[in-house]
Amino acid sequence: MTARTFRQRLLGGGAPLVSSFIKTGHYQPVEVAGVAGLDAVVIDAEHAAFSVSDLDACLMACRAAGVAGLVRVPDTRPATLLQVLDMGAEGVLMPHVRSARDAAEIVACTRYATGVRGFSNSARAGAYGGVPMREHIVRQDESVSVICQIEDADALEQLDAIAAVDGVDCLFVGRADLAVSLRAFDLDHPSVAAGTRAALAAATRAGKAGGLFLGDGRDVPAWLAAGASLFVIGSDQSMLRAGWRQTVDGVRTAHSEEIR
Hints:
16% strand, TIM Barrel
């Protein structure tokens, strides 16, 4: 990472940020992601089996690998947010944010001076007590990113209000859940595309970042043009599967050509 925090890079414009989901409860995929040059990883505690110890090790690996560690949390309970932030997460990806009220309550849980985050500087985020109280409060309040997932039909009616909440840094479209909520059941359905573009436009109007998940990088140019700047592309599992599939196909193709 550069001297700028992930949050500063997210809000500062410039080059798009590239990330991927981590779905394996182990620190080594995080280290590989850092070596590969990703800007961030999103540890998926919502849809993958992560224990508290797994999260802790993966967030420690983020620091060792120089890659921003974000956590997609399984719920919005204050205790859940407090735990991952104390472990050193640089941001949280919040599922199913439907209203400005939802967003404001989430932001409050991530802030000391203007919110309700319980104080401790004794964990990794506070250098195990090494950062004085006032300095820790300022650092955390300025650096923790709040990324709100837009993935429900009713959220589409609240986009500008959600984006306007102070402390919301990014509207991130979860197209799969949005497709289900819209009863479209197709990521390429016109209603899903329209909702995604509306969310990205609302983020731009508010001076916030816009992002989305993509299975691979083929559609990045189109979504860049639509205003996206944060891309979560695939996952450690999907990249591994694709690489092995390519290897298997290559060997079988070579064999079939040899026996002709």
